[in-house]
Automatic annotation (TrEMBL):
CSD domain residues: 31-106
Superkingdom assignment: Eukaryota
InterPro entries: CSD (IPR011129), CSP_DNA-bd (IPR002059), NA-bd_OB-fold (IPR012340), PP2C (IPR015655), PPM-type-like_dom_sf (IPR036457), PPM-type_phosphatase-like_dom (IPR001932)
Residue ranges of domain PPM-type phosphatase in the record: 141-344
Organism ancestry: Eukaryota, Sar, Alveolata, Dinophyceae, Suessiales
GO molecular function, one term: nucleic acid binding
CDD domains: CSP_CDS, PP2Cc
SUPFAM superfamilies registered for this protein in UniProt: Nucleic acid-binding proteins, PP2C-like
Stated name of the protein: Uncharacterized protein
Record-annotated membrane-spanning stretches: none
Length: 344
C-alpha cells in the first residue's frame, strides 16, 4: 500500500523590514555626494540635496545635524558649510529612526584651506615687502666722519651716503624695488680721482641697472652685473676725461687715484628679502657688525703684493670687483655696516 510523501514544512515569507534594509545599507558606509541646500549654523542643522536626486523637491532633501559633521562643530568642515557647497556623506539614522546624512565632509576642503593659507601668506609677504621698501626709502640712518691728514692740503677722500632710489622691478621678481648705495673713496695724489668717482659711480650703476632689469635673471644676478658695469664705466670714463686734458691739469689727473668700497642695499627680491652686495677696488674695507658683537669682513683687500689684481704693464690697479650676495635674515643679523679705510 502506497503512502503519500510527507509535505515539507510551511515557511512564512515576511515582507522585508524597511529599517533592517536601511541599516544594512548604512553599514556599507557608501559615501554619497550632494550639495548643501541650506544650513542654519545658529540652530545647527540643515538640508542636503543628493546629486543623483530626481528632482529638487523638498522630499528629496536629506536632513543633516551639526553633530554629524566630520570632526564636529568646531572643525573646518563645519565652517565651510554654505549653500551650494559640495559635500560627501554617509547615510545613517537619527535617534527617532529617520534617515539623515552622517560623517558629512566638505569636498575640496584641503584646497580651500590651502588657498586661504596662501592668500594669508601672500598678504603677509606683501606687507613685509612694503616695510622693506619703506626701510630703504626712509628708515635707514647713516653717519660719516672725515679727518684730513696733517700733511695734506686738501681732503682727498670721498663718500656716498646712501640716497635711496626707486629702481622699479628687478628682473624676474616683478616687485617694485628700492636701492641705497654707500661708498668710501680713499684718494691719493690729489682729489681728482676720488671726486670723479663720487660724482659718477652711483649714476653709472643706476644706468646699468635700468639697462639690465628687464633681463630674464634674478635680482642678485642683475645687481651684481650692474655693480660690475658701474665700476668699469666709471674707470673708463675717468681715463677718457684725463686723456683729454693738457698741461698741468693733465698731469694732475694722470697721477691721481682712489680706492672705492661700495655697499649696495636693494630689495625686495623674488623672496621678499633685502640684498646686501659689496663691491670694492683697492684696500678700503667693508665690515659687518652683528648684534652679538662679532664682526664679519665683507670685502677682499686688493694690494700691490697680490699679483692677481695688479696690471703688470702699467703698474695700475685693475678693476676687480668682489661681490658678496645676500645675508640670510638681514633684519635679524644686521646691526651696522661700516666701510673703512684699511691703514698700513
Amino acid at each position: 500500500m502506497a503512502t503519500a510523501a510527507p509535505k515539507p514544512p510551511t515557511r512564512t515569507v515576511r515582507a522585508p523590514d524597511l529599517k533592517a534594509v536601511l541599516n544594512l545599507q548604512f553599514k556599507s558606509k557608501k559615501r554619497l555626494e550632494g550639495r548643501v541646500r541650506w544650513f542654519d549654523k545658529e540652530k545647527g542643522f540643515g538640508k542636503i540635496l543628493p546629486l543623483d536626486a530626481r528632482s529638487t523637491s523638498v522630499e528629496e532633501e536629506i536632513f543633516v545635524h551639526k553633530n554629524q559633521i566630520e570632526d564636529g562643530p568646531e572643525s573646518d568642515n563645519y565652517a565651510a558649510l554654505a549653500p551650494g557647497a559640495l559635500v560627501s556623506y554617509e547615510m545613517t539614522t537619527q535617534e527617532d529612526g529617520k534617515p539623515c546624512a552622517g560623517n558629512v565632509r566638505v569636498q575640496g576642503l584641503a584646497r580651500m584651506v590651502q588657498n586661504g593659507l596662501t592668500q594669508a601668506a601672500g598678504a603677509a609677504l606683501s606687507a613685509k615687502e612694503a616695510r622693506l621698501r619703506q626701510l630703504l626709502l626712509q628708515g635707514l640712518q647713516s653717519g660719516v666722519f672725515q679727518e684730513k691728514g696733517h700733511k695734506k692740503a686738501l681732503m682727498e677722500d670721498g663718500f656716498l651716503q646712501g640716497v635711496a632710489r626707486e629702481v622699479g622691478t628687478l628682473g624676474t621678481s616683478g616687485k617694485s624695488a628700492a636701492l641705497t648705495l654707500y661708498a668710501v673713496m680713499d684718494g691719493h695724489a690729489g682729489i681728482s680721482c676720488s671726486n670723479f668717482v663720487v660724482l659718477n659711480l652711483e649714476r653709472n650703476i643706476l644706468d646699468s641697472l635700468r639697462d639690465q632689469r628687464k633681463r630674464d635673471a634674478n635680482a642678485e644676478q642683475i645687481l651684481k652685473s650692474s655693480l660690475l658695469a658701474g665700476f668699469k664705466v666709471t674707470e673708463h670714463s675717468f681715463h677718457q676725461y684725463a686723456n683729454k686734458l693738457e698741461g698741468g691739469a693733465g698731469r694732475t689727473w694722470a697721477t691721481s687715484g682712489s680706492t672705492c668700497c661700495a655697499a649696495c642695499l636693494a630689495g625686495p627680491d623674488e623672496e621678499g628679502r633685502l640684498r646686501l652686495l659689496v663691491a670694492n677696488v683697492g684696500d678700503s674695507r667693508a665690515v659687518l657688525g652683528k648684534k652679538d658683537g662679532f664682526a664679519v669682513r665683507l670685502s677682499v683687500d686688493h694690494r700691490p703684493d697680490n699679483a692677481g689684481v695688479l696690471n703688470s704693464k702699467a703698474a695700475l690697479w685693475q678693476l676687480s670687483v668682489e661681490l658678496t650676495g645676500s645675508l640670510g635674515r638681514f633684519q635679524q643679523q644686521l646691526r651696522y655696516v661700516e666701510i673703512v679705510e684699511q691703514l698700513g
